[in-house]
């Protein structure tokens, strides 16, 4: 595994394929750098031209709103030249393979590729096809490292030292790449992690990831400092909704409600988006001052700026 900081260089990664390849030191380094970019976003002119000489392609084979806008905004705030590729409007529809697409794009002298794809392992495959730096923006149910980094950044705003902090992720544990990246990252920095959800959406070997498991929302909310609700990933269930009875029953058993906020006054509500109001969160919970969901979105831009800055060599000023 790559990932250990080498010698006097605090950060020596070329790609961000997953948090599995990053050490705790790498993760904390990115999160510390992101604080500076978060401050830039609060300036009247929120720009810092550190990627001015870079060309980046956003290669999105799967739907995305937040992640894609967030990357694009981060790139533009740093002055990069940005090309957007969507599978729906490209030659993919004409049968071109992923390898050919990326080779063609690469002959246009691309420095960095941000990739989202429904198949696990695509970002790793891309590193073998081109020289560019590859950033994984979600590969199937495998990893979504920048999401986990922005989640950890948001937690650290409230709890600067995550060691011993308790984080529960609630919902579709089996199909969530957000869960996988968060489990890996949070455990590396010393947080305690619990997963909670219906048995049918819980991987059999989940305990081997070093997490607590609960099938009881009350127990989970009474235990945690942060509760992250997750969307049910219908698109990864092969068209079947047979893994749980109904959205209404799911909400009854696993939806976070205003009554929970009253009963357990200390935990913070998070959600990677998109939120299905009335399913994983009662609508008022999403809008309450206990939720940091929009803050997660703002922090996402700063974290992605930090990631791209560091992967492009860092330390270059405008
Ligand atoms: C997540 C994703 O795409 O994995 N969303 C996101 O990146 N903001 C979670 C989801 O789709 O439910």
Major pleated sheet: 5 strands, parallel
> Would you tell me which CATH topology of the largest domain applies?
Rossmann fold
The strand order across the widest sheet is 7-6-5-8-9
Q: What's the mean pLDDT score? A: 91
How much of the polypeptide forms β-strand, as a percent range? 5-15%
The first-to-last residue Cα distance is 33 Å
Helix content: 25-40%
Tell me the name of the CATH homologous superfamily of the largest domain.
Answer: Aspartate/ornithine carbamoyltransferase
Tell me the radius of gyration. Answer: 19 Å
Could you list the spans in which at least 5 consecutive residues all have pLDDT below 50? 1-7
| Name of the CATH first level of the largest domain | Alpha Beta
| Class by alpha and beta content | alpha/beta
Please, how many domains? 2
Question: Total strand count, please?
Answer: 9
Shape: globular
């Amino acid at each position: 595994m790559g990932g250990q900081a080498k010698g006097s260089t605090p950060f020596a990664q070329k790609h961000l394929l997953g948090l599995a390849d990053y050490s705790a030191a790498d993760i904390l380094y990115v999160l510390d750098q992101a604080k500076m970019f978060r401050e830039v976003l609060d300036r009247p002119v929120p720009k810092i031209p550190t990627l001015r000489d870079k060309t980046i392609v956003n290669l999105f084979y799967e739907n995305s709103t937040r992640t894609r806008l967030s990357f694009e905004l981060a790139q533009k705030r740093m002055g990069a030249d940005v090309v957007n590729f969507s599978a729906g409007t490209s030659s993919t529809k004409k049968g071109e393979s992923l390898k050919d697409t990326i080779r063609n794009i690469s002959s246009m002298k691309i420095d960095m590729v941000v990739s989202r794809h429904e198949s696990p392992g695509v970002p790793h495959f891309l590193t073998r096809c081109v020289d560019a730096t590859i950033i994984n923006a979600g590969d199937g149910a495998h990893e979504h490292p920048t999401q986990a980094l922005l989640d950890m950044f948001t937690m650290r705003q409230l709890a600067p030292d995550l060691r011993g902090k308790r984080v529960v992720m609630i919902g579709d544990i089996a199909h969530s790449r957000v869960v996988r990246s968060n489990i890996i990252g949070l455990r590396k920095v010393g947080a305690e992690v619990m997963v909670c959800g219906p048995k049918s959406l819980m991987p059999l070997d989940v305990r081997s990831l070093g997490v607590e498991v609960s099938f009881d929302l009350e127990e989970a909310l009474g235990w945690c400092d942060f509760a992250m609700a997750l969307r049910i990933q219908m698109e990864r269930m092969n068209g079947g909704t047979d893994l749980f009875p109904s959205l209404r029953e799911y909400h009854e058993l696993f939806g976070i409600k205003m009554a929970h906020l009253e009963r357990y006054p200390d935990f913070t509500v998070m959600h990677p988006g998109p939120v299905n109001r009335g399913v994983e969160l009662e609508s008022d919970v999403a809008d309450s001052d206990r939720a940091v969901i929009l803050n997660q979105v703002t922090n996402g831009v700063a974290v992605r700026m930090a990631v791209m800055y560091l992967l492009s060599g860092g330390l270059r000023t405008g």
